[in-house]
Amino acid sequence: MTATEPMSSPLVEQAKGVLMLRYGHGSYESLATLTQWSHEAGVTLQALCRAMVSGICQGRVGPEDRHVVRWLEQRLRGELPGPVAPPVPAPRSDGEVGRSSRRSAPDITMVKRWRYASAVHAARALETGV
Q1: pLDDT of residue 49
Q2: Is residue 113 within 8 Å of residue 22, measured between CB atoms?
Q3: Spatial CB neighbours of 68, under 8 Å, sequence gap ≥ 6
Q4: Would you give per-residue pLDDT tens digits along the chain (130 residues)?
Q5: Are 36 and 29 in contact, with CB atoms under 8 Å apart?
Q6: What's the CA gap between 106 and 59, in Å, rounded?
Q7: I need a surface site. Which of 23, 49, 56, 86 has the fewest CB within 10 A?
Q8: Rounded Cα–Cα distance for residues 37 and 48 (Å)
């Protein structure tokens, strides 16, 4: 078994797909998130991915995964930390503060629900071969 093999297993790939659907991130960001979460939860990457795919997506929670599944549920309900807010516009030469070109952020509550539901649906479809 090589050092990179656990990071490229089918189980890890499925868990990455769940995060890609949930948060709209790419493959590398999803792997980094899974790795960080495994360190925070104090479990191996494989154990975390098993808890996500089997426990959360497929609803089969084993006794050894119960605490990790609960921990993951809390994490998946939140958002990943985003980029730092842009700085306040600097005063112009005439003393006025420049008007911000930023628009207000849209309400993404429905988008978050859709991503989570889609991830669960996709995992179940993979399991049944649909």
Answers
A1: 92
A2: no
A3: 41, 43, 47, 48, 51, 55
A4: 344 445 668 999 999 998 888 888 888 988 998 999 899 889 999 999 999 888 878 878 777 778 888 888 888 777 665 444 445 555 666 655 555 455 555 554 544 555 556 666 666 766 665 5
A5: no
A6: 32
A7: 86
A8: 8
Nearest-angstrom CA–CA distance, 41 and 72: 9
**What Rg do the C-alpha atoms of the chain give, in angstroms?**
19
Would you state the structure tokens that stand for residue 93, as one six-digit string?
């030469």
Ordered by start, the domain boundaries in the chain are 5-79+109-125
pTM of the predicted structure, to 2 decimals: 0.55
- CB atoms near residue 49 (< 10 Å): 26
Residue indicated by tokens 């899974």: 34
In the Cβ-directed half-sphere of 81, how many Cα atoms lie within 13 Å?
A: 6
CB distance 89 to 100 below 8 Å = yes
CB atoms within 10 A of CB 10: 10
Closest to 34 (Cα-Cα) out of 16, 18, 21:
16
